[in-house]
Amino acid sequence: MSGFIVFFARFLPELLRGAGLTILLTAEGLAAGFILGLLSALARVYGDKFWRGLAVGYIELFRGTPLLVQLFLIYYGLPGLGITLSRGLSAFLALGLNSGAYQAEYLRGSIIAIGDGQMMAGRSIGMSRWKTIWYVILPQALRLAIPAWSNEPVSLLKSTAVVFLIAVPELMAKAKSIAAETYDPIGTYLAVAIVYLAVVYLLDAFLRRVERLSRIPGFETEGKKA
Amino acid sequence: MPDPILEARSLTKIYGQNVIFKDINIKVTEGETIVIIGPSGTGKSTLLRCMNLLTGVDGGQVFLDGKEITAKGYNEDEVRQHIGMVFQNFLLFNHLTALGNVMIGLTKVKKMPREQAKEKAMEELKRVGLADRADHYPGQLSGGQQQRVAIARALAMDPRVMLFDEPTSALDPELIGEVLGVMEKLARDHMTMLVVTHEMGFAREVADRIIFMEKGSIVEEGAPDDLFDHPQHNRTREFLWKITELYGKKEKEKAGKS
Question: Is the ipTM reported for this complex over the cut 0.85?
Fold first, then answer.
């Protein structure tokens, strides 16, 4: 046990550097995915046939295939079409596109839950459709989405581990090289697990805080206490 | 007869095979309160929604101040600023306070500066007796209070005419009075109103004209006393008889008190 603590302490700075990149990849993927997801959700709920179809196609494609396959298609596949992207950009694209498909579904659910009534009320005072979406539907739908959506940052953070396969030096890649160097895979992967766990814990605490701060009296998303 | 503010000319609405209403003609003139009564499912609510273009029409025209708003390419968003609407289930914006609900149309549609919008919104809340609830969210208000905020939200836009779609049907009996009270005050202040309701006491006391609608057409219309005391059609008589039997007791009690 004390041997592990020494080991952990020795490689912690290296692992934290990897964790830094992991967090950055998560944040970027989440942000890109949020924009894509929001647009796709809006297209599915309010769009005409063309936009609905486009959104459904995108969501099904990226939810229906493994992230690793998407990553390899972008990094190894696109050069065949004359598009060569850096490792970092490929990782960002794969994570963003993948996350967007999931976020679209979370957001779509809560937009639908807000209902036609709010749209009708917005239109009745002379707001356009887009104004009503922006000022009435989304402020409510986004709040409503938080509990279910909170799953996505954590899930995406763990998914970033696959990008070590195209040699992006994130947490998992660091672990791989430490394990190779020390011949101690158990210690290494245990240490990595602890770092992932710590980051997820902090992320969860942050998300719960956001949920609490955005709460509106009488518009609770938690189940009513019977 | 002065020019009507809001007018429906042979308005028709069809859903698939179902004719919701057909050839409806209504003229609402300035300061007039018209109450539409009739059995449920006769297209009264849909008619109101067609009058402010929330629902498309399948025939006929709607005019606001003499201009045909059902004409192709007419700016519906602009039109609705001038036609206030109050819904059966209030439909307040749940993420905004009472004040925020009344202000949002002023700031986002009329582009009024915030301070000025706030002042105006407070005035409208005062008008419905809820200035002290300005910073409450809809979830913290009773149904009656929510509906009064909804009325204030519509009034804030300074509409030419107000449409009420069964404004008290979703309320507990003890909360109906406060909403009808606000509407009576509006009528006294000569707000132009078109009201769909089952509140026969309100209809009789406040309406200038009553329209009885059944199965998608206007059966009879007239002054309240004429319609209630001497209905010309059997169907009107039957409906009034049924509804007064249901509500009559309550209305008598109310009349006794005032």
Answer: yes
